[in-house]
């Protein structure tokens, strides 16, 4: 399920569709419904995205049309995974995700730029800390009201946010040291900081 601010860049819609199709053949609208329920809360797929993904999987030989049924509008195609698709999704599931170390993230850049421009970098960290705490409260409420899948996803996000908070605290404690390593000049007397 999608959690704002915690989306995994490695999440592949195509691979996820293959996994859902391995469980059973489905129509495109069924894939969208199941995907949105399990992985897309707060960010449902667009139908165009569903059918363009299915077209790519079909062209790649990873899925096939399992049946066509007449409907009120256009004919409805049911898709099934092929043996190549099963192999592909098995390989994807077995691959570990690359841990993201966030070595040069935006927040670090903001702290350094705050120091270099004579702004109060502690304020930048305080604003970010407040935003992290706000999101953590929202995730804790969602976890309390959610099913097991929601609880696991919220735990994942909360643990990452807790690590971020530890970094924020450590960085706040080291701001003077960081400013010294950056050789931050004294603020210019004519410059007013916003």
TrEMBL record:
Q: Start and end of every Transcription regulator PadR N-terminal domain?
A: 18-88
What InterPro entries does the database record attribute to this sequence? Answer: Tscrpt_reg_PadR_N, WH-like_DNA-bd_sf, WH_DNA-bd_sf
Q: Which domain of life is it from?
A: Bacteria
**Annotated protein name in UniProt:** PadR family transcriptional regulator
């Amino acid at each position: 399920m999608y959690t704002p601010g915690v989306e995994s860049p490695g999440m592949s819609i195509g691979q996820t569709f293959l996994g859902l199709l391995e469980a059973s053949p489905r129509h495109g609208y069924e894939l969208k419904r199941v995907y949105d329920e399990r992985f897309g809360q707060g960010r449902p797929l667009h139908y165009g995205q569903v059918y363009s993904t299915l077209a790519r999987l079909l062209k790649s030989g990873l899925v096939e049309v399992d049946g066509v049924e007449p409907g009120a509008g256009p004919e409805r195609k049911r898709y099934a995974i092929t043996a190549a698709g099963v192999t592909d999704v098995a390989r994807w599931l077995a691959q570990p995700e690359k841990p993201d170390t966030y070595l040069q993230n935006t927040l670090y850049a903001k702290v350094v730029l705050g120091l270099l421009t004579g702004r109060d970098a502690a304020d930048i960290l305080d604003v970010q800390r407040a935003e992290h705490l706000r999101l953590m409260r929202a995730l804790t409420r969602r976890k309390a009201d959610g099913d097991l899948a929601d609880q696991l996803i919220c735990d994942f996000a909360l643990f990452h946010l807790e690590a971020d908070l530890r970094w924020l605290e450590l960085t706040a404690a080291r701001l003077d040291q960081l400013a010294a390593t950056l050789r931050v000049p004294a603020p210019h007397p004519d410059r007013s900081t916003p």
